[in-house]
Amino acid sequence: MAARVRLMGRWYDACTGWFRTLERIQVFSFSSSFLKPLICYLYVKTGNAVLFPPRNLANKKIGLVDGWITDEKCLARWTDVTNQDNMTVVHAPSAGDIVANLKSGEMDVAFLPAITMAGYASGANPGVEKVPGDGFYCTLAGNGMMTRKDNDFNSHWNVGFSKLVSSGKFKKLCDAAATKHGFRGPVDCVDG
């Protein structure tokens, strides 16, 4: 919240790495994306995915992280998920809290980005697993620069970014970032 307030207050010209969402495009402008959009899935406690009714949230407690793109509005747009009017939403401050609540049975299911859940849903003893089926995108594009609509920052950014991509330097930067920081999760840059 503070970043958006400061952006609108003209403390700075752009916020780095924000997602273009339906709600945000009403107020902000966005540059070309430098990362791909995040795919989001439903997750349950390990061992429960085969028992989970495919995309039916009737009488389920669903966990959402406060302030994330995987919110009630995004979930409502995912029309393959049924009986949302009969679910109970439980908010948590972090993905770790969501996982703990899934494991303890306080939540039945969670809706989160795959990249966030990679560390929890893999390895020798995963605590959660993805519900089988296709995922959903809560964003209109990947991460980019977010600006006020009255600011021409993005036009200049996009020219420079386009040159960086066409020169091949952006791919080199992404490859280096994946090597150096890949242990934290994939670095999923847009294709050049």
SS-derived structural category: alpha+beta
Order of helices and strands: HEEEEHEHEHEEEHH
Which CATH architecture of the largest domain? Answer: 3-Layer(aba) Sandwich
What is the CATH domain class of the largest domain? Alpha Beta
User: Given the C-alpha coordinates, what overall shape results?
Assistant: globular
Number of strands: 9
**Beta-sheet strand percentage?**
15-25%
- Tally of DSSP helical segments: 6
Rounded to the nearest angstrom, the radius of gyration is 18 Å
Q: What do these coordinates show?
A:
The chain has about 190 residues and is α+β, with helices and mostly antiparallel strands. The chain has two domains: about 1-35 and about 140-185, Periplasmic binding protein-like II (D-Maltodextrin-Binding Protein, domain 2, 3-Layer(aba) Sandwich); about 40-135, D-Maltodextrin-Binding Protein, domain 2 (3-Layer(aba) Sandwich), CATH 3.40.190.10. The chain has six helices and nine strands, in the order H-E-E-E-E-H-E-H-E-H-E-E-E-H-H. The strands form two sheets. Strands 3, 4, 5, 6, 7 and 8 form a six-stranded mixed β-sheet that branches. The chain has a three-stranded antiparallel β-sheet with strand order 1-9-2, with helices on both faces. The longest helix has 14 residues, at about 155-165. The radius of gyration is 18 Å and the shape is globular. The chain starts with a helix and ends in an 11-residue tail after the last helix.
